[in-house]
Amino acid sequence: MPIYKQALNSEIFDYISKASSALQLESYVIGGFVRDFLLQRNSGAKDIDIVTVGSGIALAKKVANLLPHKPKVQVFKTYGTAMLRFKEVEIEFVGARKESYAKESRNPQVKEGTLQDDQNRRDFTINAMALSLNQKDYGVLLDPFNGASDLKNGIIKTPLDPNITYSDDPLRMMRAIRFATQLNFKIEQTSLNAISNNAERLDIITRERIVDELHKILLSDKPSIGFLLLEKTNLLIRILPELTNLKGVEEEKGQRHKDNFYHTLQVVDNIAVHTDNLWLRWTALLHDIGKAPTKKFDKNLGWTFHAHEFVGSKMVYKLFKRLKMPLNEKMKYVQKLVLLSSRPVILAEEVTDSAIRRLIFDAGEDIDDLMTHCEADITTQNSKKLKQYLNNFRMVREKIADVEARDSIRNFQPPITGEIIMKTFNLKPGREIGILKESIKEAILEGEIKNDFEEAYQFMLEKADKLGFKSS
Ligand code: CTP
């Protein structure tokens, strides 16, 4: 049996080993820590899972007691688990168990069991490997399901019949796909079938947990791996039907549109090369969702998706709400970028200073992200066209930098405030102020006046005169 003492060089393992001996318990480090060690993957070892044949809570308390800084132990009584922190790392303790899950919930009915019982009940062979922390065989790998060889061969497989494993805890269907995406592994065929067969069981999982897995998929190097698997196993339609609705190509009078589902996945992969910004990746994923409800065939124009950006940005709100995602500035950012997602494309064709100014005004701080999205949105296979489109966007970017240097629109603050207007014309708060402010903004964006106080003030006086306001 292979021995991996070098995996256990953190002093925390000595403490756990000592505490276990003192309590006469057998303990093991199990799960992600072992997997990532064998993969030589630096997962940052944010958490370490310890399983003990006996009480995990008692072991955690004993370890805390031996540690010089006597950390607090957090006990989760219902689950029979405990957690303590050691140098930023969360150490989770659990008693080995045989579990059987109630049909309608994720909450297991727990019975004590052996290490092997516990390993049986874990999600994947690659996550069921344990390293002994016991003096008699310290560092020995206990790998009853050949997880190490699945790791080598890049296979996601469940220890038991996958129907049992996934039905026990349907979140594992998402986890299987997430690991396949992160590690670029294949999900074994019987497992894949079991996911399809159990897809509807996903409905008992909280949306927060599902979204957590979606985020991990989206943040992988090649998110399309995950979304293709989610689609193939019928999970995607339960989570993001807006995306599955983009599938398919229709033909009318010899005209076809592109398959917007596969296009979208390509855009997400493209953007993943350029940014780790989760919300920009969400933007790429959702930028075309308005195309399904707006699709029409027009005799003269062919396939149209009129106002799909606007419709799509409205759909973003509903989607975030349904998935219990934040409805704060992150959502607004995605909405805004979806809404603006075609604007730079239009500019690439014919560009005027005022159109650029308006775009900078509307995108504000996020103008660079918008351009990054637009570049990722190019999925043509024709290398000549690709070059040409990229070149167009490069010109738009230059123009943006140029206009921005002159006019500072990005963080636009009206040079004339409502207070100044009220004071100048002795006005009380009311519509007139809004009208004047808006006309000043328009004049700046149109390039009639510069974005500075003097010109704006002069403009305001003239405009007010036309409107019949009297200065005081
Ligand atoms: N586990 C499980 N079923 C789940 C969640 C977790 O069997 N639904 C088991 C697996 O053995 C897993 C361990 O609990 O390795 C720890 O789970 P977790 O911390 O969520 O995941 P890691 O495997 O550590 O991986 P990551 O940190 O990438 O999520």
Describe, in plain words, how this protein is organized in 3D.
The chain is of the alpha+beta class and 472 residues long. Among the domains are: 149 residues, Beta Polymerase, domain 2; 86 residues, Hydrophobic Seed Protein; 50 residues, no CATH class. Helix content is 53%, strand content 12%. It contains 24 helices and 15 strands. It has a seven-stranded mixed β-sheet. The chain has a two-stranded antiparallel ribbon with strand order 6-7. Helix 13 runs antiparallel to helix 14. The longest helix has 25 residues. It starts with 10 loop residues before the first helix and ends in a 5-residue tail after the last helix. The chain binds cytidine-5'-triphosphate. Cytidine-5'-triphosphate (CTP) binds next to strand 2 and helix 7.
